Amino acid sequence: MTPPFPPPDWIAVDWGTSNLRAWAMGADGVLAAATSAEGMGGLTRDGFEPALLRLISAWLVPGRVIPVVACGMVGSRQGWFEAPYRTVPCAPLDRSALVRVPVASDQIALHIAPGLKQTQPADVMRGEETQIAGALALMPGFDGVFCLPGTHSKWVHISAGEVVSFQTFMTGEMFALLSEHSVLRHGMQGAGWDDAAFEAGVSETLSRPERIGAKLFSLRAEGLIANLQPAQARARLSGLLIGTELAAAKPYWLGQSVALIGAEALSRSYAKALALQGVDATVLPGTECTLAGLATLALKLEAIR
Predict the structure, then answer these.
(1) pLDDT tens-digit profile of 152-205?
(2) What CATH number matches the domain at 10-126, 3.30.70.140, 3.30.420.300, 3.40.50.150, 3.50.50.60?
């Protein structure tokens, strides 16, 4: 079966722990997109190629090999094929460091982008380096700090097109654990939100981050005796955790140009928290940055196939 559009010039892939996303790319950008729940975390080593082919088979044509450029956890030690970390300071991506992956299919040529590592203090990233490269392509000459909110938020110092240093915070994962699996879950049912409660939480822990443990339990107590509503509790929990992160990351954002890369809703929350400290952050869409970053690798892929 042939696709309902000309064969793609190449295919972009963002393969995370939970999901697999792919885009058929042509001269004018995205021709088609597809997503599956076959993330790295649910696959064995021999399950990756079939999972990818199931998702992109409609874009392939007999007799033609289409380059595939992938980023994310697919290149981890537990992924399809390990792409060794590159050490900062360095450019976020390097075409010569792409790892060619042996495949059984004669219709794709797969390359994986390596992540980055920092030896002191020890830190790693996979996938974010591609978004950073894309952001730099969208904002040429940017010097300052990128924040990539998410399950594991990253603060990244950029200078002269290189990642100089970075720091990871488990803020998103802590929010999920506390709101879904701790005693706090009883007062956080639903999906409501309260902006004033969020801002109060940010301010509380930015000024007194050492009080985070006590402030967290107060959410449970106020739900029991002071009628704290679930929407207020969820928003304040988010504010408390993001405020603690901002307090620890202050050397990154204080006096710097800051750009946020990620999902719109979460990035807006970080932007609001930073605005409370007088920082006007630019917000960049995560998917757009991922595609722009992978495109920088695909531009001269023929030369290294």
Answers:
(1) 999 999 999 999 999 999 999 999 999 999 999 999 988 889 999 999 999 999
(2) 3.30.420.300
